[in-house]
Every structure is written in structure tokens, then in C-alpha cells.
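Final report, closing paragraph on structural work. Over the funding period we assembled a curated collection of sequence-structure pairs, and we close with a single example.
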Amino acid sequence: MAKDLLFEIGAEEIPAGFMPNILSQLQDLAKAKLQEARLPFESIATYGTPRRLALIVTGLADSSAEVSERHKGPSVSIAYDADGNATKAAIGFARGKGLDVSDLTVEDGYIYAETKTAGVSAKEIVADILPQLISALNFPKSMRWGNLEDRFVRPVRWLVALLDEEVVPVEFATVQSSNVSRGHRFLGAKEIAIAKPSDYIDTLKDNFVLVNQDERRQVITDQLHAIANEKNADIVWDDDLLEEINYLVEWPTALCGSFEDAYLALPDAAVITPMKDHQRYFPLVGKDGKLLPLFLTVRNGSDHSIEVVQAGNERVLRARLDDAKFFFNEDRKKALADRKEGLTKIVFQEGLGNLADKTNRLLQLGKTFADATGLDEETRGILARATELAKTDLTTGMVTEFTELQGIMGKEYALLDGESTDVAEAIFEQYLPRFAGDVLPQTEAGKVLSIIDKIDNIVATFSRGLIPTGSQDPYALRRQTIGILNILLTSNWNISLRPIFVESMNLLQVPAEKQGELVEQVESFFTLRLKNIFLDRQVPHHVIDLLLSNSQLSVADAEGLVKALLHNRIDEHVELVQAYTRMYNLVKDITYTGVNEALLSAEAEKELYAAAKTASEMSQSAWDNHDYDAVVDVPSTLVPAINKFFEDVMVMDKDEAIKANRLQLVRLAYSVMAIIGDISALK
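Its predicted structure, as stored:
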């Protein structure tokens, strides 16, 4: 008869940001361990609130399946002597399998042993697995408490482990499992008996705990929108904020608060940031899109004395907005252009000067990038002015207090100072994208400033030997690299980043003898990030390896070739791959110096030479015009001539001059593939 399993880990409040990953881990681990134990089940789900992690498995079999195995032993000639008696080899083999020699069978000249392993009861398996689940969970940070050695994300206070109505014995950090859970910290019962797993969700709901995070999220969403509709307003929505709130409450009750209209004189960002990032409030805007003196928040409890909670939230927000107002008024006493001196007092990185030094580097990198991309004079002027002011908002009180506003307040202050809209926008866009899925810079100057700022950060950090390893990336270099690549992938700039890297190293005064190795490290870092971007787009591994084997490609080249290779899957043309692989093996270490046409005697080599010259010219012309479809189409045109050449001509001729000339011919023919990448990647 099928059984249901409930496993609840009760703990002190778990950080909201940890919860989605923990629940995913718990589900994956439980599924893997049950499958490893060969214990069938129908479904598996995980639930979580700030105070608990729960696992519910339905339809567990009574026991694991019986396993039959067939083991091959020694040959018959070794297992039995001439009289047919079992030798020590056969006896030992049978004993090792727990069988008598008479139980062995003979087939195909070998002896075999058939063994059966009885199934294990579900309770025994579950009792073994559950403690492993606790220990196997990984957290960004874990704790020890008391004098215990056990670690968990937060101190564990209770455990519930039920297989149908039977308690499964589990112990962790001196806490013994039972069928007793706990309700809401203030509204529910301190101890709740769970009769069976199927009662768990409803029993907790009766005690003011919505344990199903999906249900809880929907309740929060509905409550927020209901209040917004009452106020004839729209919510400044944020999915990440909703997810954080979802794991901060067990029994959500939304409420609306207000603040004085006078604070609306501040830039919207100065009001919204304290609300969202510091107080976890949702701002409201009118139907005209203008910010209203209202906010929504979610209480972890019922609507009892909700007006007191509302007043408390309003009081706290008022204090934060008073701070913002003070800093804003103080900041406005000095224009951004007059704050450059303050950059000398802010360290960029240890041993690499201050932000004034960084600004000077960015000005020079901007010129180098502008020359490489052919920016017009107007854009160059915007870029230069935006670069001069780019970091000045870091000296303001507003950004010092609310660091999330870097770039945002720079834009606001620039506009108030009378700077052009384009300059102000570039100041804001320098930090884009700020996170995965964030918007990319849209202005030309903003794109350049974002790229060179990130390149300066990456090269500077690499020059200090601080290259990200494993999951450690304290300077967010991976995110910045992906940001650069995504900007280039969506731009019309077909440039190599190598000169920019080298110029950055020169500006950072990296010794010349170290630059070669450093360039390789930075380019490899970028290449791996680009590979990950293509993998996320479901581009086949070997197609990516083919094009990224060409170290001379720009990001735009790689993007163009990917699209062309997905359109014309030359990797699936067996005859083409074989032909070019054969050529690659002959000439992979040979540099093309030219073919002596006078030494061509065989008709097949003359035909290949004529075809290869034409194909090479076509390929180079297509490459120069960024016609990547044509570049990918050209190699197939040579396949018949290549095959005929290898059938009719001996490349490794006894005459060294003829041999060398034929290798040069092969190298010429191979060039139409080499322009794409290394064919060996398709092996």
C-alpha cells in the first residue's frame, strides 16, 4: 500500500534570499536519494516559510524493489577440472555471491551466478535518508549554536518526520523528530500535532501559516492589487521584492501607508529607493505615472490593530525620507563638475590609485574605443563630458547613504546642473546592466562608457592577481564581462577588444613583460563567458568550440558566425568534415607562403588550385563584408575538388619541392575553413 512522507525542519528565521535555492536543493536531493534507494514514489514537493522547510512525498512504495543480478564468473576451463569437479576458483566465486557451487550456471563458456537482493522497507530507507538531507543542504552562510558541531542555516528547533501516521526516528543537533509542528509565532498554537502528511498544509493554515509559497505569493499579489485598485493607483512592481516578502511572512496581510506630499519634491529615485530597498515597500503611482505619497507593505500577521502597524511603518519611512531630503539639499549646494576634487579621496583599488586616476584612464580609453568604432564628433563630445562626471556622484551624501543610487543620482544631478540629456543618460548607463536580465545601455556614449568602465575594472583586478576562481567573484567580474559581451552582441561595432585591453594595461602601468600573459588570461575569461552565453541559447557545444577556436574573432564575428552555422550546419556534413579534417591533419602547423603554379602537374591539383583560389577570394570578400552566411557556405564548394585531389595525388611526394608545394596548396584550400575556426573541434 502506498505511503506519504512528511519531513519538516523547523528553524529560527531563515534569510529570505536563501529560501528558493534551499527548497530546490531539498527537492532535488530527496528525489535523487529515493531513486538511488530504488524506492518508487508518485510525486515530491517542497514548501517553505521563514521558520520551516518542508518536504512531502506522496505515493511511496512499501519497500524498495527486489533486485536480481547476473554475475559473470571465470571461464568453464578454469572453474572445473577435467573430471567436471568445481575448482577453487568456482567455489570462491560462488561463496562470494552467497551461493552454493550447485547454484552456478554455465553459458557461452563461462559460469554465472544469479543473485537476488530483497527490498528494504520504506521506513528503514526514509530513516536513513532524512538525516542525510539535512547535512547535504548547502547555504551561503551556515551557523553553529550552543556547543554543538552541527551546522545549519539557522538553529534547528523542531523536526517532524511522518510516514503516514508513524513517526520516523530522526535526530539532528540533539533535536528528536516527532509529529509536533508549530504554528505562527504569535497567532498560532505553540505545538500542533500533525495526524498524517496529507493534513499538514490545512493544519498549518488553521494555525495561521500558509506553508505553500506559491499560494502565499498569490495571496500577497492579490491583496496588493486590491488595495491599489481601491486607491485608483498602479504599483511600481518588482518581482524580486515580491519574492523576498514572500519568504518573510507566514500569514500575509497587506496594508497601505502614506507620507507627506512635500517629499515628492525629491527625485523619484530618492523616494523609491528607501521604500523598496530599505523598507521593502511597494511605491504607488497615479494613472498619470506620477509618484503618489502612498506605499504598500505586507505584515506577517492578521489585520488586528493594523492601524498601529501602519503608523509604525509610516514613522520609519518618514525618518528615511528625512535623511534623503537632507542629503539631497546638501548635495545641491555643489554641482557635479565641482566635485572632481573629491574623487582624489576615494580609493579605486589597493595600489591602483583613486577615482580621479580611474577617470583619467577612462577618458583615454574612451578615445581609443571611439577611434576603433569610428564614433562621430558629437558622440565623442558627449562621451568625454559624461566620463568626466561619471564618478562624481559617489562623493555625494545621497549616494554615500543609498549606494544603490549610484549613477541614478548622477543622472538626476547632471540634469539639475544643466547638463545635456545625452550626458546625463550616459552617466546612468555606465553601470548597466547591473544584474542578470537588466536592461542594456541604449545611447552610443552610454554603451562605450559602460564597456570601458567594466574593462578598466576587470583588467585592474586581473593585474592584481585577483582572478575569480570557483564560485568566488567578490568584484563581480563575471557579471561585468557578460554585460560587456551582451552590449557588443547587440551593437553594430565589429572590433577586437585586444587593443582596448592592452591600452588599459598601459594606463594601469602593467609591466610590458607581464602584458602578454595577462592579455591571454583576460581573453580566456571573456571567451568562457561568451561560450556560456551561446550555451544558454542552446547552441551545440561543438559549434561553439569550432568558432571560438579562432582567437582572432571579434564578438560581432562570433555572433554572425553562430547564426550562420545554425542556418548551415556544416558540422552535420560528414563528407565536408572528413575532407577538411584530412587537410587539417596535414597542414595544421604550416604557414601559407604561396603556391608555385609551375610545379603543379597533376590535373587534380590544378583543379584544386583554381577552385581554392576562387573560394579563398570569395571567403575573404564575404568576411570583409560581414556576410557570414556566405563565409559558412564557401567550404562545401571545395569538397569535390578536395576529394579528387586526395584520390589522384600523392601529397608526400619524394621530391621535396613538389611535396612542399602540394602542402601549400592544401593550406590554401584549408583557409576557407580556417577563417571560421579549427575543424578539429568537430571531431
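The two ends are 52 Å apart (CA to CA). The longest helix spans residues 306-331. We thank the funder for supporting this effort.
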